[in-house]
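Q: I'm writing up a methods section and want to include an example of the input and output format. Could you take the sequence below and give the corresponding predicted structure tokens, formatted cleanly so I can copy it straight into the document?
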Amino acid sequence: MSVFQQNLPIQISPIENNEEGVKYQGLFEAMESDAMKIRMDDTFFADNVQNAISVEFTMSNYNFQFESSLLSGRDGHFVRIAKPKVIHKSQIRKTTRLRTAIKFNYTLWTEGGRFDGVITDISTVGIKMSTQKQLSKNTLLSLNVYVPGGTLRFICQGLVMWTKQDPNDEYYYTSGVKFTTLSIDAMKKVDKFIKENLPKTEIE
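A: Here is the clean output for your methods example:
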């Protein structure tokens, strides 16, 4: 279980009655003798998630997933889940990306403050964004994306996969962000938006 390190971002999805594929953001806290201790966001407790769950996390260019169950009630901001017997590993697939210039705002999951950014390209798995704030790899963000006209709107969590300084502007940074809690319903909306706006020449 050495793959699990403190503050590893993970996502929990209820297995039952979850047709929209809703995911909740969490952070791995500790491996106990008979359980994993996870810090969860407030929406997880507000929605009173129970019973069987699916757990996902990302490392390098791979996604990991396993099924588990909640073992006890709420302990402050923490829950305990059963240790996995089998963990499935899959490579992150490349998807069609659309170049954009969508202004949006975001917050850092572990600290206060709201920041502005621009989405320079978007896919169903994540975004590339430009912002004046330098973001560290593995930083968790809450993304609030709205395209005027009602063509696209969603709120989800994202994980910073990389960051580099903008070669054309010393005051800006470019970051790649992977969606971590984008629901199936929201993913379909993103996919529709990309297909409707994709030029004849697709971006690789």
